[in-house]
Design goal:
The complex is a heterodimer of chains A (284) and B (403). With 284 residues, chain A is α/β, with parallel strands linked by helices. Chain A is built from twelve helices and nine strands. Chain B folds into two domains: 156 residues, Rossmann fold (3-Layer(aba) Sandwich); 218 residues, Rossmann fold (3-Layer(aba) Sandwich). In chain B, the strands form three sheets. In chain B, strands 3-4-14-9-10-13 form a six-stranded mixed sheet, with helices on both faces. Chain B has a four-stranded antiparallel sheet with strand order 1-2-12-11. In chain B, α9 crosses α11. Classes of the chains: A alpha/beta (284), B alpha/beta (403). At the A-B interface, α3, α5 and β6 of A face β2, α1, α8, β11 and β12 of B.
């Protein structure tokens, strides 16, 4: 295993372990539905129960995402959101909360165009703890993963049901922060996984790493979140939150007055679901 | 530029042409991409695989396609001798079938049960639906909603051939979105499905694999020119969208120093207008659809839509091998506008009795610029990569003819 940058992520998972409970991870897109609303949502996530915050960096062609997150990305781009502004949002957030880990999630091209070295320096300075870049598998680790580790930022790898036992060590070789298990073969926000299957895959991963395992894709309700969290170290919810934003848009695509409360309300009930989940003992 | 020993050795073992290419895909797909690579490595060294490919090329596609001396156009230009490589005479009317035959043979070899594809103008969709009918495999074709509307004859052809057409409304509803949607389908149906990509782009091994299937164009040209003129051609010209017909013609000649090679991108309303799909002349390197290559994009790395009168060139990227050949200077990449392509369309139809697709019209437009100033013994081969039946509606509209 390569060196592991010490970030807020490790501290947070340590705290969760001490509390004996799984974590709850939220995903929302920077600038969705507009800059102001997305910042108000972000500012309320930790109090509503998010243990770790994923911020989506909008991209025009999100090939692993379903309709909800695609639309959310396009709304944000239309409103002028960019990677640079996303880093600005993180930097502002850090003035109020220096503990909740922040992970940027997106696709490689905006980072490549920004310039990898400049981006990593700016991201570190802004207070970003980790990166999830969907289209950078370990085969392309030299692009961003290795430079990120050098810059003191965790690079979080996705594993999928298609990731065989033979391949897992390759994926985990430079993984840091946590491992994100994509619970379905499919895109975000579509079908849901069977908990027993997820438990099996999480077991496979845990057998090969000490990193925490978060599970995402297809988790929509507090009940599902609780179930999944009972077999993992954290549950990630994204599309369901984005759907709350979509449901609160008026005919002109402007957010209604209840948008922030609706999203944070769902976050609260999902977080309660996760907190109620009994954490299984980690296989040693 | 540094002279390499060969320009034909790519890709390297990590799937790159220089800095281009690669495997920029989600982890869910990565194991499958590695499977495709492994299967392709085995197949391309298997004589039986190529025997079946060659058989179908000859008896089903109708190859070799003729190398035709375009005498009247040559007279018209008054300079170089212009030859057409007649890939528009292939079954289904374009070079696309060379690739879909190759890929479906590989899909069968891998035991895949279901085929998906993306299409813009519909030519690749038709070529895919055709081979799926031939081999009795279910076929789903993703097509941008606007293209479904613009390309009704091809949509009907695909349906007749048994394919399911899925109109794509996500994003901007164009070819790039159709490709996103095909990739999403693949991620969701990874075990049983094979994705037949329509051009020499996408994650490794697709760019090299598609090139290898399309190289039949250049290999035949080499032999035919030897037979007709007793030597190699002096200049090769081909239109470039994703670049599969061009790389197929070019690749067998890359190591022949005497052969001047030119790719022609679609400049739409002109590069300076911003409405074009000339990725090499008006874009810059980025990462999309599994590979690094030149892309049309804004300063934040968001992908822009391409524009061209030719729906087959209307893609914001280009095959990674072309990006590499551009950077090392082996191939020259130029562009032709809508207006120039339409002029070439009229000229070719009137002088040669060949109604060309709008894609090769871009190549012919450039030939019409350079041929007059070249000596009479200079041999140009232009790839006539598709026939124009599919484009008559678009052309009629431009010419103000009420169909």
């Amino acid at each position: 295993m390569s060196k592991q940058p010490e970030t807020r992520i490790a501290k947070r998972f340590k705290k969760l372990q001490d509390e004996g409970r799984p974590g709850f991870v939220t995903f929302t897109t920077a600038g969705d539905p507009d800059l102001e609303t997305s910042v108000r949502i972000l500012n309320g996530l930790a109090d509503a129960g998010a243990d770790l915050i994923e911020i989506g960096v909008p991209f025009s062609d999100p090939m692993a995402d379903g309709p909800a997150i695609q639309a959310s990305s396009l709304r944000a781009i239309k409103g002028g959101m960019s990677l640079r502004k996303t880093l600005g949002i993180v930097a502002d957030y850090r003035k109020k909360d220096d503990e909740t880990p922040i992970v940027l999630m997106g696709y490689y091209n905006p980072i490549y165009i920004y310039g990898v070295d400049v981006f990593l320096a700016d991201a570190k300075k802004a207070g970003v703890d980790g990166l999830i870049v969907v289209d950078l598998p370990p085969e392309e680790e030299a692009e961003l993963c290795l430079p990120a580790l050098d810059a003191g930022i965790n690079f979080i790898y996705l594993t999928a049901p298609t990731t065989t036992d033979a391949r897992l060590p390759r994926v985990l070789e430079h993984a840091s922060g946590f491992v994100y298990f994509v619970s379905i073969t499919g895109i975000t926000g579509t079908r849901s996984a069977v908990t027993a299957d997820v438990a099996g895959h999480v077991g496979r991963i845990r057998a090969k790493t000490d990193l925490p395992v978060a599970v995402g894709f297809g988790i929509r309700t507090p009940e599902q979140a609780a179930e999944i969290a009972s077999v993992a170290d954290a549950a990630v919810v994204g599309s369901a939150l984005v759907d709350q934003i979509t449901a609160n848009l008026d005919d002109n695509g402007k957010p209604g007055p209840g948008t922030v409360d609706a999203v944070l309300g769902l976050v609260k009930s999902l977080a309660e679901g996760v907190r109620g989940a009994r954490k299984t003992e980690k296989a040693s | 530029m540094t002279k390499l020993n060969t320009f034909r050795s790519g890709v390297d073992e990590t799937g790159h042409f220089g800095i281009y290419g690669g495997r920029f895909v989600a982890e869910t797909l990565m194991p499958l991409i590695l499977d495709v690579e492994k299967a392709w490595e085995e197949a391309r060294h298997d004589d039986d695989f190529w025997a079946e490919f060659d058989y179908l090329m000859k008896h089903y596609v109708g190859r070799p396609s003729p190398l035709y001396f375009a005498e009247r156009l040559t007279e018209q230009f008054g300079g170089a001798k212009v030859y057409f490589k007649r890939d528009e005479l292939n079954h289904t009317g374009a070079h696309k079938i060379n690739n879909t035959i190759g890929q479906i043979l590989l899909a069968r070899r891998m035991g895949k049960k279901r085929i998906i594809a993306e299409t813009g103008a519909g030519q690749h969709g038709v070529a895919t639906a055709t081979v799926c009918a031939l081999f009795g495999m279910p076929c789903v074709v993703y097509m941008g909603e606007t293209d479904v509307e613009r390309q009704k004859p091809n949509v009907f052809r695909m349906r007749l051939l048994g394919a399911e057409i899925v109109p794509v409304t996500a994003g901007t509803g164009t070819l790039k979105d159709a490709m996103n949607e095909a990739l999403r389908d693949w991620v969701a149906n990874v075990e049983e499905t094979f994705y037949i990509i329509g051009t020499a782009a996408g994650p490794h091994p697709y760019p090299a694999m598609v090139r290898d299937f399309q190289c039949i164009i250049g290999n035949e040209t080499r032999e035919q020119m030897q037979e007709m003129e007793g030597r190699l051609p002096d200049t090769l010209v081909a239109a470039i969208g994703g670049g599969s017909n061009a790389i197929g013609l070019f690749h067998p000649f890359l190591d022949d120093d005497s052969v001047n090679i030119i790719g022609v991108e679609a400049a739409g309303h002109g590069i300076e207008s911003g409405e074009h799909c000339a990725s090499l002349n008006g874009g810059r390197p980025g990462v999309l659809h599994g590979n690094r290559t030149y892309l049309l994009q804004d300063e934040d790395g968001q992908i822009k839509d391409g524009y061209s009168i030719s729906a087959g060139l209307d893609y914001p990227g280009i095959g990674p091998e072309h990006a590499w050949l551009r950077d090392i200077g082996r191939v020259e990449y130029v562009s032709a506008t809508d207006v120039e392509a339409l002029e070439a369309f009229k000229l070719c139809t009137a002088k040669e009795g060949i109604i060309p697709a709008l894609e090769p019209c871009h190549a012919l437009a450039y030939v019409s610029k350079i041929a007059p100033d070249l000596p009479k013994d200079h041999l140009i081969v232009m790839n006539m990569c598709g026939r124009g039946d599919k484009d008559i509606f678009a052309v009629a509209e431009r010419f103000g003819f009420d169909m």
